Amino acid sequence: MSIPLIRKHLNEMGTLKLRSSMGRNYIPMAGPPRFPMSTAQRLIFGCGSLVVMMIIPFYCLFSLPRWSRMHLGLPPEEEDQAEEPPPKE
Fold first, then answer.
1. Domain region containing 40
2. Spatial separation of the C-alpha atoms in residues 11 and 61, rounded to whole Å
3. How far is CA 14 from the centre of its chain?
4. Is residue 74 within 8 Å of residue 83, measured between CB atoms?
5. Using an 8 Å Cβ cutoff, are 47 and 69 in contact?
6. What is the rounded distance in angstroms from the CA atom of residue 80 to the CA atom of residue 66?
7. Residue 63 lies in a domain
8. DSSP-based three-state secondary structure for 28
């Protein structure tokens, strides 16, 4: 089954019912998908973009101090805090 790229007039599709003259003559090209989606698909489409646009950039921003210490050749902050102070003489 091929899907035409040009919108068909509703009269040609045979779905036109008796309507007022203010009705639509063409199939809408934009809008919700015309096929049913499972809950998992809706979750991926809905939350996947949220993860990409919000959670990943926040993770990157909050990881910058760790990355900068790593590239400067310094030990991680966790190791600095875990070091025991030198013994007092």
1. 36-74
2. 56
3. 38
4. no
5. no
6. 12
7. yes
8. coil
| pLDDT at residue 69 in the model | 86
**Alpha carbon 12 to chain centroid distance?**
37
Contacts of 19 (CB under 8 A, 6+ apart): none
Q: What is the pLDDT along the chain (89 residues), one digit of tens a residue?
A: 556 666 666 566 655 555 555 666 666 667 666 668 888 888 888 888 888 888 888 888 888 888 888 888 888 777 666 666 777 77
Q: Is residue 51 part of a domain?
A: yes
The pLDDT assigned to 47 comes to 84
41, part of any domain: yes
Number of domains in the chain: 1
Within a domain: residue 47?
yes
Residue 82 has a pLDDT of: 61
Which residues does 65 contact at the CB level (< 8 Å), separation at least 6? 77
- pTM score above 0.70: no
